[in-house]
Amino acid sequence: MNFSRLTLILLIIPGFFGIAFAHTVDSVGEYRLEIGWMNEPVVSGETNGIELFVSPLEPDLSLEEQEFKNGVSGLEKSLKMQLILKEDKITLPLSADHYVPGKYYAFVNPTVSGFYQANVLGNIGDTKVSLSMHPPKVDERTYIEFPESSDLTLNQLIDGHTAIVGEVNDLKESVAILEQPNSQNNIGYVGIGLGIIALVIAGIALAKSKK
Prior knowledge:
By secondary structure, the protein is an alpha+beta fold. Helix content is about 35%, strand content about 25%. It folds into 2 domains: about 20-145, Immunoglobulin-like; about 155-210. The protein contains 3 helices and 9 strands. The strands form 2 sheets. Strands 1-2-3-7-6 form a 5-stranded antiparallel β-sheet, with no helix packed on it.
């Protein structure tokens, strides 16, 4: 393998790790806190959750060199997470991971795309925690939809309304023909035509309500 190819691989690999592990790390007191979305890429309208990792800081390493290990368990009752988007906010309880001590979840369904702020509040032992962190951006759901939006309700209503209008216009034309001066039994035909219109509209409305 020549030098230029090796250099290219070394440049690409960190990019892959940045995508796979898009977490934010900070510290409070003697503890390291890390957050990130459970499922990535995260999109609006899908149930997801924020992962929280809590572990002791290693005194001989900088924060950038720290890794999650020796997780601090038992914090699901003393910590909570507040999720904020612009003027809206919600307080979420934490659930402990059954297999990884020091790992917690705050489940949520982000309904709007954008950058959320996650406030970790409470206590870790005697250490008070009031820390603002920022998980990666929530993308718009259409980012992964194919071939078209799965929300067809509005389109179905528009199509149904268009069909009803078309049927009514056709029947109006038929009634107009029956009302011509040279038509016989005009009143009877008009009454029949109006009756047909009422029956068709009622039938279409009934069919739409059953769907």
